[in-house]
Amino acid sequence: MQEFRKTLQELPFIAKLLLVIFYDIYGALVRICKGDTTGIVVGVLQLVTGNFFGIMWIIDLVTVITKKEVTVLA
Predict the structure, then answer these.
(1) Residue 71: predicted pLDDT
(2) By the 8 A CB rule, do 53 and 38 touch?
(3) In terms of Cα–Cα distance, which of 60, 34, 56, 59 is closest to 45?
(4) pLDDT confidence of 74, banded at 50, 70, 90?
(5) What single string gives the DSSP state of each residue in 32-68?
(6) Closest to 68 in 3D by CA, of 3, 16, 2, 7
(7) What pTM did the predictor assign?
């Protein structure tokens, strides 16, 4: 799991941005790969609910654009 997380973090900026714009799978995968219970629950809920009805999409988009690390709860 840690190797997959490292691979996600090493993606080029444009790849991260495209993954966030088109369904925001990047943020959900990073949260799931963190391995703690909160990250897994938030990541799965994010995938199932359509990124909390768009709120997490905006947060992850701003996070990727500002080149910060995606955190568990935003």
Answers:
(1) 65
(2) no
(3) 56
(4) very low
(5) HHT-SHHHHHHHHHHHHTHHHHTHHHHHHHHHHHTTP
(6) 16
(7) 0.68
